[in-house]
Amino acid sequence: MQAQPRRGAPVMETTRHPGIYRRGSRYVVVWPHRGKQHKQFFRTLAEAREAKGRRFAGERTPATRASFELSVTATDAAGNARAVRRTIRVDNHAPPIVRARYRLCRASGSGRCVEAARAGGTTGIDDLSVPDRGEWRFKTWLEDAAGNSRRSYASEPVTLRFDDRQPVRLSAAIETADGTTAPRATIGFGKRPTVRGSLSAAGRGLPGAPLAVLSRTRGSDRTKRVDTLTTDASGRFRYRTERGPSRTVFFEYGGDDRRRPAGDSVGLAVRAKSSLSVSRRRVENGGRVRFEGRVLGRPVPREGKLLQLEAHYRGSWRTFAVLRSNRRGRWHYGYRFEATTGRVTYPFRVRIPRERSYPYAVGRSRVVKVVVRGG
């Protein structure tokens, strides 16, 4: 009488992998040994496959050291047969690494690559050199005594740079009002600060060296050349900047056959500026005045420039109106005084806040005063 499976017990289901079954939420590896069937349970299929591979690989492994004769016979339709025999030696040990292969290519991708090999190479390649001046990409992979070697297993690329020219140092800084220098400065609208610097190699100034002056406006990705300088007899230079918006000014030395290129930059933050006038300097309470002016810095955003009208009272500056100029930077605003008693002098000014579309730092106009006589 055939035995029936126990009621309620999980049934072993086959999988796509021979010798591996699924029983409930677990996986089972089944194998025969000495006339008996053995099972081993695992939580995941990956664990079961790995265990099966180890077990069956161990069963198929030949002796630790042995030689085998492999014979292959091919027979055609006419009955002609030919056999080929080969001796295979197995020692169950991975072949040792005997050399390191490598490939050198220019970082730009141009030109031919260089491939070579070095014996050993398991700890490093001491005598490696690039073929020429420039930037190169280096990859390496290993080869064992059996000739196994795959370029697809190569290392991540390493960047190598070779330049046999003399290093050069270029430094530049902005002269400040107190006589010191700084790499960055905030200046008033229309000011032209002076930049001074030096060019040297091995601690000595380079006289008569040409320097390119370039400028990039804040918020722009375009750099343009604006001037050319020449260092003096001691390798120093001075440059008076032009009027303009907030920007970065670059100084570049192109180098030559003996010296490397060099460069430095300074940052200028320029305060925004607007004119301000008022239609009446004296007015009775209930009277109306007109403020007007023009934003001076260019370029003005297409949507106009944001402005804040401020008045000074009760000990601080307070914003009482927010407006925008037109595309040409002109603006105006009317205001009526309605709550003044006695005789009061009000200072007014325009604050120009920073905006991404306007390449200037926060600025302010001059102050104008209006005398108001109340009841």
Could you please describe the fold and organization of this structure?
This protein is mainly beta. The protein has four domains: 12-57, no CATH class; 97-162; 169-270, Immunoglobulin-like, CATH 2.60.40; 277-373, Immunoglobulins (Immunoglobulin-like). It has one helix spanning 45-60, and strands at residues 12-14, 20-23, 26-33, 36-42, 66-75, 81-90, 97-106, 114-119, 134-144, 158-162, 169-175, 181-182, 184-187, 194-201, 204-205, 210-217, 224-230, 236-240, 247-253, 262-270, 277-278, 282-284, 288-294, 306-313, 316-324, 330-336, 343-352, 363-364, 368-373. Strands 22, 24, 25, 27, 28 and 29 form a six-stranded mixed beta sheet that branches. Strands 11, 12, 14, 15 and 18 form a five-stranded antiparallel beta sheet that branches. The chain has a five-stranded mixed beta sheet with strand order 13-20-19-16-17, with no helix packed on it. β1 and β2 form a beta hairpin. The longest helix is centred in the N-terminal third of the chain and has 16 residues, at 45-60. The N and C termini lie far apart (122 Å).
What fraction of residues sit in β-strands?
over 45%
The count of β-strands is: 29
How far is it from the N-terminal to the C-terminal residue, by CA?
Answer: 122 Å
Quaternary state, please? Answer: single chain
Q: What is the CATH superfamily classification of the largest domain?
A: SoxY domain
CATH third-level topology of the largest domain: Immunoglobulin-like
- If you average the pLDDT, what whole number results? 89
Shape: elongated
Number of helices: 1
Based on the structure given, which CATH architecture of the largest domain is correct?
Answer: Sandwich
N-to-C SSE string, H for helix and E for strand? EEEEHEEEEEEEEEEEEEEEEEEEEEEEEE
Taking Cα atoms only, what radius of gyration do you get, to the nearest Å?
Answer: 42 Å
Largest sheet: 6 strands, mixed
What number of structural domains do the residues give? 4
Which regions contain 5 or more consecutive residues with pLDDT less than 50?
none
Mind telling me the CATH class of the largest domain?
Answer: Mainly Beta
Q: Kindly state the percentage of residues in helix.
A: under 10%
| Class from secondary-structure proportions | mainly beta
